[in-house]
Amino acid sequence: ELVLPQEAGDPRWSAAAERLTHSIAGADGDRPRRIILARCALKGRDPRDGTLQTARDVDLTISWPAWSDSLAVNGGLRWSDGSARITLTDLRPYALFSGGESPFTAALTWPTGSLSAQGNGSLRDGLKASGTGSLQTRSLHKTLALTGGGLALSPFVEDFAVEGSFEAAAGQIQFPSVTVRSDGNVLEGAGSATFGPKRNAVQATLAAE
């Protein structure tokens, strides 16, 4: 069982994280080629409400071949509310830790849906990302519950899909151009979403084709 940092600067992780960051950034001329976690448990704070939770059956592989500038992540986990798998490719750590941008391709799947995105991101002035993506779910209510949020009519919405361009930073996502599909209906427009420990909020201006 691994216990994740409980707060910023957790002494159990800070020194190791600093050494790993310097290694990835090339400060000491070396870097890890592969990191593997198999059949383990992770204990940490739930980002939705701060409670201590445990994820089980965690498998994670981080690969960064010596001949490549790109890092790849593949893994999965199970927790009390369900399970999920994630893949992340095309990420360039050197660019990120030197203050530049990195391309990325990401995919997340869970029993009732999937999320995919591709674009560019940076760590300069906080985590920022922009690109295009899509969300598909067979149960909007269950998907929103995973984030700790909900909508009044979400239990009645089954097939639901969103795709378009996005710009994300500091707990907010802007959708300059978005297409929403639900139960055979198609709406287009723009919108935004805000995520926080107490409340998630979504705003959109949409019109039928």
From TrEMBL:
Protein name: AsmA family protein
